[in-house]
Design goal:
about 220 residues, alpha/beta, Rossmann fold, about 20% strand, globular
């Protein structure tokens, strides 16, 4: 197994649930824009979890060329090399295709999905993730509340689906055995408003109480037709 972006937030948590996976990450000098190196590493895999991306909406807006190159051309390189080597690809897309389709990030994920559809692979649209290793380095509402840096509620009534990183990893692993034309949502199927998350943050078991608040919804994987 190969994980692109294996040293990123989701990647480092997925690493702990797989047996001896290979890591391909820009932090090690492995660039998904380097098609030769991508093809070389792909020879060692049977499944590729493609997580490498510019995944920050603000960074995508600030550096659109880099985001487009990484998220679109890089994804094309992964899919081309995987098809040539007979490797199955599980592509980490995002709920941004639903909620923020007109942002640079959302558009790159939509186009990434089209590439996966063209070459064959499983698309996983991942909801708002929290918890696990490296989460406090993220700048999300939940992580800022944990760090005490949350300042504004903004649109407090806006509802989102929040899912724990462990359930995301389980969903990605499940996706690896689905048919290469599958499109799935990795989510709980429940939503919470930002105001509700703020209220939960005042309790001692935050953020794990998010799961109990959602009445036991755990990692619902919805397969789209």
């Amino acid at each position: 197994m190969l994980i692109t972006g294996g040293l990123g937030y989701i990647g480092q948590n997925l690493l702990e649930q797989l047996e001896n996976p290979l890591v391909y990450d820009i932090k090690d000098g492995d660039d998904i824009l380097d098609i030769t190196n991508v093809a070389k590493k792909m020879r060692e895999a049977t499944v590729c979890y493609h997580l490498a991306a510019v995944s920050s909406v603000p960074l995508c807006e600030a550096y659109p060329v880099n985001a487009i190159e990484t998220n679109i051309i890089g994804t094309l390189n992964i899919l081309k090399a995987a098809k040539e080597k007979g490797v199955k690809v599980v592509f980490a897309s995002s709920f941004a295709v639903y909620t923020n389709p007109n942002t640079i990030y959302g558009m790159t994920k939509i186009l990434g999905e089209k590439i996966v559809e063209q070459y064959g692979g499983v698309v996983c649209r991942i909801a708002n993730v929290y918890g696990g290793k490296g989460f406090l380095k993220k700048e999300t509402a939940v992580s800022r509340l944990m760090k005490g840096t949350f300042e504004e509620r903004g649109h407090g009534q806006e509802k989102r689906d929040f899912i724990h990183i462990d359930e995301v990893c389980k969903g990605l692993i499940r996706a690896s055995v689905l048919s290469p034309t599958s499109v799935i949502d990795i989510c709980t199927g429940k939503t919470l408003s930002i105001d509700e998350i703020v209220d939960l943050s005042n309790k001692p078991d935050f953020p794990m109480n998010i799961q109990s608040y959602e009445r036991g919804a755990r990692g619902a994987v919805k397969i789209q037709s």
